[in-house]
């Protein structure tokens, strides 16, 4: 009787092992069948919440895609990754596609899906400010962003809207690398700084500064961050780009129809060092100022605003027509 019992236990354990191996093999085969796409994101930010939602909610997987996201920390590095075939798709400011085109690229970079539609930075003051007025920046040390980058150009545009000359009325500091701007401010550089989230809210909570204004609210709608790829890749992998864009659209709609608390919980794995309450605050702030695009279509009015801001900043290398660097055919097909 005892031998029979041992025999049955052995058979059961063998069956469990075989079943587990089979299931594991099926999962591996299923993953191997998915098409791999390498995405280079310009920075890691809650601003890009829909992208992380597309991964975590399985929207990319539903489309048969295995998406790998790599943070490249800066527009130049992100574009280099795309141009050198280190990435298939870049998530970065639309201005970078204009710079590449102006250099006479044989294979231009095309914007095919919009993720954010306002600036994502905030003006943070070192000291507590009562009744903030933009005139308070005059004569102050202002730690800005990279010259020619979208945050800096929008920052200068907003200052000009408030009759402040960014070259003469403030002491503009631009010699700090993008990845080190927050650390520089925390170390004592600047009276004011232009920061992305969640850093701005973290600094405020830790008493290192106070958020006094939103550049997104001040500058209006603009194609701030978009997914782009080489024109050749877009032509050769049209079906792949369509699947990718469809997953992004699902994520945009999910974020638009679910609570801030739900969204924060979904993207928390990408911000392990950030408290969930901070993530909720940031998502809420971006939602309230309509920073998250609710569909991937980059329209012509937004593009023209981008070109206007670049021209105002003296960074527009040449006039670029909307249809030259923007292809909305896939986004429009998906939304319809």
From TrEMBL:
Coiled coil: none annotated. Its main location: periplasm. Residues 1-22 form the signal peptide. It comes from the Bacteria. Pfam families: NMT1_2. GO terms for cellular component: periplasmic space. The keyword Transit peptide does not apply. Keywords: Signal. It is found in: Periplasm. Belongs to the bacterial solute-binding protein SsuA/TauA family. PANTHER family: ALIPHATIC SULFONATES-BINDING PROTEIN-RELATED, TAURINE-BINDING PERIPLASMIC PROTEIN. This is NitT/TauT family transport system substrate-binding protein.
């Amino acid at each position: 009787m005892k031998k029979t019992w041992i025999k049955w236990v052995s058979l059961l354990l063998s069956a469990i092992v075989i079943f587990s191996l089979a299931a594991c093999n099926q999962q591996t085969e299923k993953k191997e069948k998915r098409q791999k796409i390498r995405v280079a994101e310009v920075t890691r930010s809650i601003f890009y919440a829909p992208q992380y939602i597309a991964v975590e909610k399985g929207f990319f997987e539903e489309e048969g895609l295995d998406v790998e996201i790599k943070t490249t920390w800066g527009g130049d590095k992100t574009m280099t990754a795309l141009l050198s075939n280190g990435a298939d798709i870049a998530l970065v400011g639309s201005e970078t596609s204009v710079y590449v085109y102006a250099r006479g690229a044989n294979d231009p970079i095309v914007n095919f899906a919009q993720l954010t539609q306002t600036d994502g930075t905030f003006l943070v003051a070192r000291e507590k400010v009562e009744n903030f007025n933009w005139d308070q920046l005059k004569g102050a040390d202002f730690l800005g962003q990279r010259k020619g980058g979208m945050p800096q150009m929008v920052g200068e545009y907003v200052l000009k809207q408030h009759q402040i000359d960014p070259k003469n009325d403030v002491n503009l500091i631009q010699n700090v690398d993008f990845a080190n701007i927050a650390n520089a401010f925390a170390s004592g550089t600047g009276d004011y700084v232009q920061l992305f989230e969640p850093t701005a809210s973290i600094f405020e909570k830790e008493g290192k500064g106070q958020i006094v204004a939103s550049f997104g609210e001040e500058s209006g709608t603009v194609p701030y961050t978009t997914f782009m790829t080489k024109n050749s890749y877009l032509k050769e992998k049209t079906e792949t780009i369509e699947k990718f864009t469809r997953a992004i659209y699902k994520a945009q709609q999910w974020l638009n129809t679910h609570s801030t608390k739900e969204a924060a919980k979904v993207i928390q794995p990408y911000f392990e060092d950030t408290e969930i309450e901070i993530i909720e605050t940031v998502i809420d702030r971006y939602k309230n100022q309509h920073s998250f695009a609710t569909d991937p279509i980059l329209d012509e009015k937004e593009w023209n605003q981008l070109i206007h801001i670049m021209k105002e900043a003296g960074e527009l290398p040449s006039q670029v027509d909307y249809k030259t660097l923007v292809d909305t055919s896939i986004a429009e097909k998906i939304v319809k």
